[in-house]
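Q: I'm writing up a methods section and want to include an example of the input and output format. Could you take the sequence below and give the corresponding predicted structure tokens, formatted cleanly so I can copy it straight into the document?
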Amino acid sequence: SPFATEIPPADFVMIARGMGADGVRVEHESQIEAALELAMHARGPFVLDIVIDPTEAAPSGKRNQSLARQGVK
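A: Here is the clean output for your methods example:
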């Protein structure tokens, strides 16, 4: 796939904290709502480090079609 990307394991929450922000790591879909609540109530920058399944294809089809209709290349 032309959009394939592999990012090595990183603790983005610790990186955020090292830069003065806060955040939480989301490892299961059931944690997303609580994590979003925390982010919405944060008093400053907040990172959601969401772990995704690398074997699952990104749902980019409709987005890419929309961008193409708008003339984005």
